[in-house]
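Lecture 7 notes: from sequence to structure.
We start with the chain below.
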Amino acid sequence: MNETLEVVHCYTGDASLVRGTMDLRHEPVLVLSPADAAVAIEGFECRASGARGWKGSHTWQRQLEHWRIALGSDAEWFLLNDSDSFCLGPVPTYLYDDQDMFWSNVLCHEREHLESDRPNFQPPYFMHRSVLVELEEAMSLFDPTDLDGIEFGVGAFRFTREEFAQEAAIDAMYTHFVMNVVERPWADYPNGATTWPPGTDLLATIAEGADMVHGLKEPLAR
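Predicted structure tokens for the same chain:
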């Protein structure tokens, strides 16, 4: 059996959501939060490092610190979640077929995935240990003052140093490093679901069989 660690990234502001949805998680579970907004959930391993915030260059540093904590485990595979992302049901077996592959919910300009799109990777993120190690090593060498030519996120845009300090988000970090730095193959979950495009009925998509979802803001009715 593949040893998979589920990581839940959260902070005090969404701790109630995490506590109310722990029955959707897959043990072993590691709860990671910022040191200045730490979350403690009884019965689960909880660690804290980095500074709070949902975007800004400091959030990239926090994510790096959280990767290092996760890699301190013996897990071979990693399922990395935000507080509002989940694998609903058993972890799909196809995810274990290719150790080089990085999996996520892939957002583009349109519903269709076109060559002209600038994809954006949304959680849950699933990868083999070798991929996470490579991401951690690459991010350790990243110079946030050298942003020339960096393009990432939905749409063709580039961050200036000032914009990066305020606007860089975690999903942009994953997207940029997977696609442009470590250049790992990546794929969209065939049964993934998010709240994109605007107006999407996430609960209806879940009812139709989606199992790798992002944007669930309250526990599912049982």
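Points to note: The chain has a mean pLDDT of 87. The chain has one domain: 4-214.
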